Amino acid sequence: MANDNEFSFDVAYGKRYHSLSEFRSHKAKDKAIEWVAQRLRHEQLASLLADNRNKYAAAHSDTERKALAPVILRQEQELEAQKATLTALANEVRTLENSK
């Protein structure tokens, strides 16, 4: 990870980490790295989805819209799956960090 201070992670009851070096558990830190990477992928896909929705709205023909519709649907489904993965990873990080 390029910058160790580019995230904010709620660990427990008002306790928030802003740096990977704050983690006491090595396993939690490893999972937090995975969470940060997954969150970045999620943000990138959300941006791509927004772009495709804008293209759909600006499309001048049904052909353009028909081409974009399945792409948008797939991206929406993938975004939902990533959201579930992020939640599971965050819970795992919290469990590992708070059990130490």
Written overview of the protein:
The protein is mainly alpha-helical and 100 residues long. The chain has one domain (9-98). It has 2 helices and 2 strands; from the N terminus they run ββαα. Strands 1-2 form a two-stranded antiparallel ribbon. It is elongated, with a radius of gyration of 18 Å.
Topology:
Elements: E1 9-12, E2 15-17, H1 26-58, H2 62-98
Strand order within the widest sheet? Answer: 1-2
Helix residue percentage = over 70%
Largest sheet: 2 strands, antiparallel
What is the count of helical runs?
2
Structural class: mainly alpha
Strand content: 5-15%
* Sequence of secondary-structure elements: EEHH
How many domains would you count in the coordinates?
1
- Gap from first CA to last CA: 24 Å
Overall outline: elongated
The total strand number stands at 2
Unreliable segments (pLDDT under 50, ≥5 consecutive)? Answer: none
> What's the overall average pLDDT, rounded?
93
Rg, rounded, reads 18 Å
Offer a concise description of the structure.
The protein is mainly alpha-helical and 100 residues long. The protein has helices spanning 26-58, 62-98, and strands at 9-12, 15-17. The protein has 2 helices and 2 strands.
Keywords:
100 residues, mainly alpha, single chain, two-stranded antiparallel ribbon
